[in-house]
Amino acid sequence: MPHKSQFKMCNNCEIAIKCCKIVPPMIFQFEQKDFQDNIFYNEFNSEKIPLLNKSGKNCIFLKDNKCSIYQKRPLNCKMFPIDIKRINDKLYWINLDFCKIPENIESNLNKFENALLKIPRKELDLYVDYSNQTKELGKIEYQIIREVNMPPVKIEILHHNNHKFMFLDGYLWMWDTPQETELQEDLAKKSFGDVLVAGYGLGILPKFLLTNQKVKSVTTIEVHKEVIKKMKEFGKIYGKIIIGNYYDLPENKKYDCIIGDIWPDIDAKFLNDYISFKRKSRKLLKKNGKVLAWGKDFFEYLLKDKSARS
To answer: Three-state secondary structure along 226-244?
Structure first.
């Protein structure tokens, strides 16, 4: 390397700077103006990923086996060999195994987490999903370091034409249009016994569940306490609330019905979220229990189609 690295081990790199050769780095919005003349876009989940070369090629700034912009390299490069991986809907710092975990890792993770404050949650989610599904990175073993310390989400509820639209960190997450309300009511009508709901949102589903005489109890687990706090501004909170991650729920308590609504849209790119939800739900069900979900028919169709092709 032509310059001293923040990771001491990089100063004596023995792996021929694979960090520049595995995949071209992704450029975040806050730094795109510095690289706007050198960005290539790769299609991923109906989104365009800004990279410093075409997918599958070396970074364009790799010259004579050295980084030609080392002092001004993007955040993605500064982080390497550290990356972020989503595991059961949580984000973790990981270390890619062809480099040992740096001695000064914690101080650098703190710096990286400060840098993440510049990145909208939707953009960070896109980066994580792209990184986690890249073939080249997927072949590399990794070690989990710790969970990423994320700032509290910013909750906004906007009103338009007598309807509410909930935004989480600028990402449209929930709305109460007639079509959405009908979908939630239909889920409630199919439910019975002790019901667990993953994701509170605007509280539409818990409210409908409490009107169903076949339902004995309604418990909702919501990962963002800010959602419940915001919804209290609009009145009553429906049912019992647990603040926490759905995938961390103890499996000794069982439910007759479990309903999932923890993905932002009914879209093929959220199929893995549905699969993870379904797998966890089976461990929480009573005998003869039922798993329901927002978009279940669509996701089940994708699973059958995927199975038929394999």
So the answer is: HHHHHHHCCCCCCCEEEEC
Q: Which pLDDT belongs to residue 272?
A: 86
Q: Which of 81, 113, 147 is the last residue of a domain?
A: 147
- 62-63 and 66-67 beta bridge pairing: antiparallel
* β-pairing verdict for 142-147 and 90-96: antiparallel
Quote the distance between the C-alpha of residue 267 and its chain's center.
Answer: 14
Segments forming the whole domain that contains residue 160:
155-309
Burial class (CB in 10 A: 0-12, 13-18, 19+), 89: middle
In 130-251, the DSSP E strands lie at: 142-147, 155-160, 163-168, 171-175, 193-198, 215-222, 240-243
Model confidence pLDDT, tens digit, residues 176-196? 999 999 999 999 999 999 999
Statement to judge: residues 118 and 218 lie in one domain: no
Determine, yes or no, domain membership for 2: no
Position 3 in a domain: no
The stretches of 134-167 forming alpha helices (DSSP H) are 135-138
Q: Please determine, for residue 3, whether its predicted confidence score (pLDDT) is greater than 60.
A: no
Q: Which two tokens stand for residue 26?
A: 């992704």
Render pLDDT for 99-158 as a digit per residue (tens, 0 to 9).
Answer: 788 778 899 899 999 999 889 888 898 898 888 887 777 778 899 999 999 888 889 999
CB 94 within 8 A of CB 143: yes
100: left (phi over 0), alpha (psi -120 to 50) or beta: beta
Give the separation between CA 70 and CA 61, rounded to whole angstroms.
9
What tokens were used for 160?
């338009």
